Amino acid sequence: PLRYISKLKELVKHEADKNKSQWKTMGPAKVAVPSPNDFLQKRSKEPKLAPKKKEEDGKKLLPLSVPPRTYHPVTRVKKNFISKNALAVMTGEPKKPRHFCVDTRQGDKYLLEPSGLFPKYINKKNYGVLPKYVIQRNEEMKREEEEYQASVLEELKKKAMKVLSEEERTDVLKALKKNWEEINRAYQGLPIVTDTRYKQMHKEELELKLKQLEHDIAAIEKHKCVYIAN
Fold first, then answer.
1. Quick check: 145 pLDDT over 90?
2. Among 116, 163, 175, 187, who pairs with 206 as Cys (CB 3.0-4.6 Å)?
3. In the chain, where do the E strands start and end?
C-alpha cells in the first residue's frame, strides 16, 4: 500500500516556521550597532537649567535716584544706657532671694523649690478640688445608674405576677369543675370493651385530662392566693 501523507502537512510546516526564532539555529539577528562616538559622557544625565534670556535694550529700568513718597528715613537717637540702667535699678522691685538647700559639709547646694522639700502644690488655690471632667463624669455615671435602675424596675413590673381575686378564683374553679363533669360524662359513655387501638388511645387521653383537671382543682381549693404570670 502507498505511504500515508497527511493533508495538513504544509499547514504544520508553515506554523512551525512562523513560531521559530531566527537566532536559534543561525545565531543572533543582525541589528544596528551603536556608534563609538555616542559614548556616555560625564554629567550628561544631570538636569540642565534653561539658558538665561538676555535683556533687550531699552527695556531695562534704571534705578531711581529720588526716594519714593513712602520712604521714611531712620532717625537714630543716642541713648545713655548707663543712666537708663541706673534708673531701672532704682525704680524697679528688688529681686526676691532664692531658697537653697545645703546637704554636704563642703557647701554643695541646690534649689529648694524643684527638690520636692518645698510645699509648692499644697499652697495652690485649687489644691484638693475635683477637676471639672471628674465631676461631669460622676454626674453622667449617676444618671446612667438611675436610668438603669428605672429600666430594671419597669421590667420587673412587667414581669410581676398578678394575684387572682376571690371572684376570679371562684369562676376559674367553677369552669374547671364544669369541664371535669363534661369529660367525666364522655369517659362514662365509653364502651366496656376496648378492642381497637383508637378506643384505647381515646380512653387514655380522657384519663389524662381528668387527672390534670383533678390536680388543678385540688391546687386551687388548697391555696387561697393564686398568682399568675402576665
1. yes
2. 187
3. 100-102, 109-111, 161-163, 227-229
Q: Which of 168, 180, 174, 176 is nearest to 226 (CA)?
A: 168
Residue 90 has pLDDT above 70, yes or no: yes
Run of H or E residues at 80: none
So where are the chain's domains?
A: 97-160, 162-228
Identify the bridge partners of residue 162 per DSSP, sorted by sequence position: 228
Q: Which amino acid is at 176?
A: L
> C-alpha dihedral over 34, 36, 40, 42, to 10 degrees?
-170
**Residue 27: all three cell numbers together:** 545565531
pLDDT tens-digit series, residues 108-133: 888 888 887 888 888 888 888 889 99
Tell me the three-class secondary structure of 3-67, residue by residue. Answer: CCCCCCHHHHHHHHHHCCCCHHHHCCCCCCCCCCCCCCCCCCCCCCCCCCCCCCCCCCCCCCCCC
**Terminal-to-terminal C-alpha distance of the chain:** 103
- In the chain, the amino acid numbered 190 is L
Reported residue count of the chain is 230
**Measured between alpha carbons, how far is 64 from 56 in angstroms, rounded to an integer?**
20
What number of CA atoms fall less than 13 Å from residue 79's CA on the CB side? 6
Q: Are strands 100-102 and 227-229 parallel, antiparallel or unpaired?
A: unpaired
